[in-house]
Amino acid sequence: MGRRTILIALVVVLLVLWSSEGLQHRVGDSIWSIPPTNNFYKNWSSSYIFHTGDTLYFDFDSGLYNVLQVSRGEFDMCTGYEPYKTFIDGPATIPLLMKGVFYYVCNVSNYCALGLKLWVIVEQT
């Protein structure tokens, strides 16, 4: 086998491994905390394309913050009365397993109203 053939085979293997693993997105590219503006996390999520197989990495200290996956209604109202999932121990890694729109809030104090909320659109890989 020539060098070129080996190089092409290596590139193909790397592309397959990369595409099957998915990407880990550090939410906000920083720690999960009260943002400088209300639209901070909305602007962050709109700058990425999320795919099934990717993960969201919420970097926060347990006891100070949390992450709740909620419905659109609870997201809009900044409540977490009936969360789908609750993550109280930080940091939290959340796999994006299916296509759709997913909503996350922090229900500590009034942090959600201060902008500590995120929604992502996940596309099929």
From TrEMBL:
Residues 1-22 form the signal peptide. SUPFAM superfamilies: Cupredoxins. Keywords: Disulfide bond, Glycoprotein, Signal. Gene3D superfamilies: Cupredoxins - blue copper proteins (2.60.40.420). The keyword Phosphoprotein does not apply. Residues 23-124 form the Phytocyanin domain. Pfam families: Cu_bind_like. This is Mavicyanin-like. It comes from Salvia divinorum.
